[in-house]
Amino acid sequence: MNTAILLIIGIPLIEIYLFIKVGSQIGAINTILLIATTAVAGIWYARYEGFNTLRSGMAQLVKNEIPLYEIISGAAIAFAALLLILPGFATDLLGILLIFPVTRKMILSKYSTKQSAKRKNNTDEKNYIEGEYEDIEDKDGK
Questions:
Q1: Which of 23, 42, 70, 76 has a beta carbon 3.0–4.6 Å from 31's, enabling a disulfide?
Q2: Per-domain residue ranges for the chain?
Q3: What is the pLDDT of residues 21-72, one digit of tens each?
Q4: CA atoms lying within 13 Å on the CB side of residue 2
Q5: Cβ pair 114, 64 in contact under 8 A
Q6: Closest Cα partner for 97 from 69, 76, 67, 127?
Q7: d(Cα 50, Cα 82) in Å, to the nearest integer?
Q8: 134 alpha-carbon distance from chain centroid
Q9: CA dihedral 108, 111, 117, 122 (to 10 degrees)
Q10: How many CB atoms lie within 10 A of CB 106?
Q11: CA nearest to 42, candidates 3, 94, 96
């Protein structure tokens, strides 16, 4: 089955299950307030971290360096803010993990090492270009 279809069906099922479990423990109003609080606090902190990332990226540009980590980190913060806006406990947990710099760096470094290793394996095998050539000058007699 396609991964996107599994995510589209699976994430709401997990969120509904968690709503029921948490709501039965702390009550419906408290569950709603908890979801609203995590959304507001997460957006506020994402804004704060976003400005820190922007400031760090500008410092990299002043040093005439490419702010690659800051670009990726900014995209991760935007995705985390989206996850925090979506109602649910599982998405909030993932959003909080992406918001904090320590866990964001761990997640991004784990993903980037997998991608760089994958790219390295693909390029190691193809260190040559296969082809044929023909010397045009020898055929014309020049």
A1: 23
A2: 35-119
A3: 999 999 999 999 999 998 898 888 888 888 888 888 888 889 888 888 888 8
A4: 4
A5: no
A6: 76
A7: 13
A8: 49
A9: -120
A10: 12
A11: 96
Query: From the DSSP assignment, how many helices (H) and strands (E) are in the chain?
Result: 6, 0
Q: What's the token pair of residue 110?
A: 């784990």
Report the amino acid identity of residue 34.
L
Torsion of CA 83, 86, 90, 91, to 10 degrees: -10
Calculate Rg over the CA atoms of the chain: 24
Out of 28-32, 79-83, 107-111, which region has the weakest mean confidence (pLDDT)? 107-111
Alpha carbons 73 and 23: distance in angstroms, whole number: 34
CA dihedral 32, 34, 39, 42 (to 10 degrees): 180
